[in-house]
Hints:
35% of the residues lie in helices and 20% in strands. With 135 residues, the protein is of the alpha/beta class. The chain folds into 2 domains: 1-33; 34-129, Oxidized Rhodanese, domain 1. The longest helix is centred in the N-terminal third of the chain and has 15 residues, at 3-17. The N and C termini lie far apart (41 Å). Mean pLDDT is 77; it is low at 13-27.
Amino acid sequence: MSGRRAWSSALAIAFALGLACDLTDRTCGGVRHFAEVDATDAARQVAAGDAWLLQVREPGVGDPRASSADVVTPVEPLPAPAAALDRAVLVLGHDDAAARRYASRLVRAGFARVFVIRGGIRAWTESTASAPAHG
Length: 135
């Protein structure tokens, strides 16, 4: 199920149960959720220093490394939520499913602003390759 459909489903269930949902804070019934972001928008946020990029690398998968990312594996301990400070956390994975799994762990650990980069490393590589050089 896509992140958008999952969020819509969560809203429908919450409404049926009479739970309060805050769309701006991505909380529903007191439970936080992550959102998705386009790779081009994510690259702009990272370049501006407004976001922390985490690349989830599965052992044995030979994806290229995103140059500005901190690399994490699915099995290592999570960073502390304070590490994000006032920045959004952008999760980049081999594919959307890997990124969503890691994003869910971050949300459960207390990270407030978590986003999955849609399209995974392929979309990221394409968006950063076509980005104009700054100078």
